[in-house]
Amino acid sequence: MPATELDTELAAERTHLESSRAALRRMRDRAESLFATGDKVAGDSYTAEQLGRHMARRVKELADDPDTPLFFGRLDIEESAYHVGRRHVTDDAGEPMVLDWRAPLSRSFYRASVRDPQGVSTRRRFGFVKGELTSFEDEHLDRGEELGTSSRILTAEIERPRVGPMRDIVATIQPEQDELVRADLADSICVQGAPGTGKTAVGLHRAAYLLYLHRERLRKSKVLIVGPNTAFLSYISTVLPTLGEVEVQQSTLDDLVDRAPVRGGDSVAATAIKHDVRMAEVLSRSLWARIAEPTEPIMVSDGSYRWRIDIEPLRRIVDEARREGLPYAVGRDRVRARVVGLLQRQSEYRTGNSPSDSWLRRMSRIAPVTEFLERCWPAVTPESLVVALLTDPSTAGDLLTGAEQEAIRWVRPPRTVKSAKFSPADLLLLDEAAGLLERETSFGHVVVDEAQDLSPMQARAIARRSEHGSITLLGDLAQGTAPWATTDWRDILVHLGKPDAAVVPLTVGFRVPEVVVALANRLLPALGVNVPEAVSLRRDGDLAVIGVAEPADLDQRTVTEVTDALAHEGSVAVIAADPAVQRLRDRLDAAGIEHATPGDVDSGARVTVVPATVVKGLEYDHVVVHEPADIVAAEPKGLNRLYVVLTRAVTRLSVLHSKPLPEPLTLS
Ligand SMILES: Nc1ncnc2c1ncn2[C@@H]1O[C@H](COP(=O)(O)OP(=O)(O)OP(=O)(O)O)[C@@H](O)[C@H]1O
């Protein structure tokens, strides 16, 4: 395109941007004035509140962030041009000025190709600098032109320095990612992706897409995002709000099951047993074993009347309720209701009247009925069930070996259920027990990130919350660091209750430069998992492996490396085995270098010191790894941990060591 023509086009696009911004402002003003008058037009206070909430959300959704471009692409289809952006913008007549990226038509922005142009003659991508439209890039699909991953704008987006929390990728979603983002709500999928292939990004955009397409349904049933720790959740916390989605629940696994305060701990062996799927059966058996055959009739004195229910009908009631396969507490309520029903029938027969509600209530609480229930279908709480099991694990019978029973046995059982000191793993048992007693409410859709680390019991906790919904499972088997981390996705999918979910690979890496990927990939054969290697889109990037002769100099050398890194743009992370973290923080303090903790996304500090155990899912421009041998030695799956650590760098990786490097790394 000649320079003058280019200028004219650019000017026209800027004008469209300005008028779209003005239109969005008007949409927001209208929403605000409706918000202000909402309580006057609503008939009652409940409607007013509902309307108020809806309008408040609408006003929020329509907020314009001057630093975020309102549109990032354009599709020319037949004679019309459609701008594609983060949300719909319409003019005063309701005509679209910007299409939401999730709208059906926008799909072609991500998927149209020369082979399958989908009616698109030209696809245009816009380049922005701080919300200012500065350039564009055209692909004339009708003339066989296609840029794919060589798009300059895509490259710039991938290579931009990282600061602060994660950003959305709406402008540059790739076709294979888009296919996952736009999968049907009914489809559960599992994404196996090497580090930096955009799994987290895909999961978050899929949540936003589903909310757009099934707004009413998912507003009721809700969407849940599960991440490994709070540092990770704060890192991703701003992505959905920038996409206009403010109503998604985000939780760590621990928070999902926090029914009781954690006041105790476990041995490594006990933890492993409590995460084992056999515990589900152990709990189930010990719960249902509490049901006993009725051996006495129920006799009730009711004023001048005497009611009696014989053993046989009571047996039938208990057997029938068992066969119905209901959760335990629901079954108990049903037994009580049926017993009261029999009393009611006797009363009706004898008195000729229907008993009142208060009579029914009295009968359901009357001592003979309650005593029968306590004998045959006793009241149980999750806490009482777990406390009983850990006090006397022999109730597990042949499901656990004698040694396993001893490993989970409480040395000092609590005197009361209330005073029990539960460990983090006990919370999973409590959650399982609660699921046996009552049904969990199911979310409409659950996204689980870093899912390779789910234990069977954790997977079951999620299964209970997605029984009637679908899931997006994201992970990388090579990054599995939990003792129970699986080497086969099917295992987890079975525990999640979605055994038939498709496992889809993502292999194009957007984060880690080629040289760094090559180093990390040396570890792959030693990790015992069968996963495709990542192909990096990034040809830039540096790698330095620095041996420090004197161990006592390593910390200081790390500080020097950080100082050098600060001469470049972007974020810097020091990643070390957990015990070294405080020492390194003190060193940085002494050197006057401001630094933050992971998860503190509001901190202005460019340097973060990150314990190796919480670095999953995070990324930094320059990563300084401190003593890989210590990171590996710190835990049984230390090599997997090192693989995670080495794949956090966006542009530069410095590996500092005074001990020999772990063996697989030295092989070339
Ligand atoms: N299509 C894309 N366009 C631009 N950037 C992208 C794209 N896909 C992913 N990225 C960027 O690549 C980086 C890695 O993405 P993300 O964190 O989602 O990967 P991941 O597969 O979850 O990685 P890990 O396994 O290490 O947790 C992020 O900065 C993300 O914004």
From TrEMBL:
Binding site for ATP: G193, A194, P195, G196, T197, G198, K199, T200
GO MF annotation: an example: ATP binding
Keywords for the protein's UniProt record, in alphabetical order: ATP-binding, Helicase, Hydrolase, Nucleotide-binding
Gene3D superfamilies, A to Z: P-loop containing nucleotide triphosphate hydrolases (3.40.50.300)
One Gene Ontology CC term in the entry: cytosol
Boundaries of every UvrD-like helicase ATP-binding domain copy: 172-513
BP-aspect Gene Ontology terms: recombinational repair
UniProt-listed InterPro entries: DNA_helicase_UvrD/REP, P-loop_NTPase, UvrD-like_ATP-bd
Protein name: ATPase AAA
Organism: Actinoplanes utahensis
